């Protein structure tokens, strides 16, 4: 007989949201520490993701063993041949209220990552929500530098005009 934890993970992978029927599985993780929401984002399981994300008080900022939240998974994961995940997952997590200034194990925050991935809709939302526009990426570039250096300023728009920094702390 398959354990309940395995059945829940399989339900996410197969987009069988009807099996995800209880808040008891909020803390279900696979061996690397990925939560059900993180697995849904990582594997691009839209139905499971759409089911899990709006649940009141769902802990979407749980960290994996590598210290990455669901937003980090959505921003850092790619499929074969360096094809990045769909922006949808990143954008929806930001809309839901994911920590916008978390620092990933690579030392980068969401705004520089979103710009690197060409997730301009998410970048605009991050700026509007108060993301740190002075956060640097692994190349020591600030988000504004990135957009100007790559002639992408028109894609992000005037959202750099209203700038403020915020802080966020995640449990270790």
UniProtKB/TrEMBL annotation:
Pfam families attached to this UniProt entry: Ank
Keywords: ANK repeat
Stretches forming ANK repeats: 106-138
Protein name from the UniProt record: Ankyrin repeat domain-containing protein
């Amino acid at each position: 007989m398959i354990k309940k934890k395995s059945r829940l993970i399989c339900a996410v992978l197969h987009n069988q949201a009807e099996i995800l029927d209880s808040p008891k599985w909020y803390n279900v993780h696979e061996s690397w520490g990925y939560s059900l929401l993180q697995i849904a984002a990582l594997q691009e399981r839209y139905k499971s993701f759409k089911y899990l994300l709006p649940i009141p008080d769902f802990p979407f900022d749980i960290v994996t063993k590598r210290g990455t939240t669901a937003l980090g998974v959505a921003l850092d994961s790619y499929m074969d041949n360096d094809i990045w995940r769909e922006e949808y997952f990143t954008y929806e997590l930001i809309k839901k209220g994911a920590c916008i200034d978390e620092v990933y194990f690579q030392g980068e925050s969401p705004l520089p990552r979103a710009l690197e991935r060409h997730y301009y809709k998410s970048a605009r939302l991050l700026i509007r929500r108060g993301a740190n526009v002075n956060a640097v990426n692994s190349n020591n570039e600030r988000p504004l530098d990135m957009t100007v250096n790559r002639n992408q300023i028109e894609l992000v728009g005037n959202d750099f005009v209203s700038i403020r920094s915020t802080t966020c702390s995640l449990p270790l």
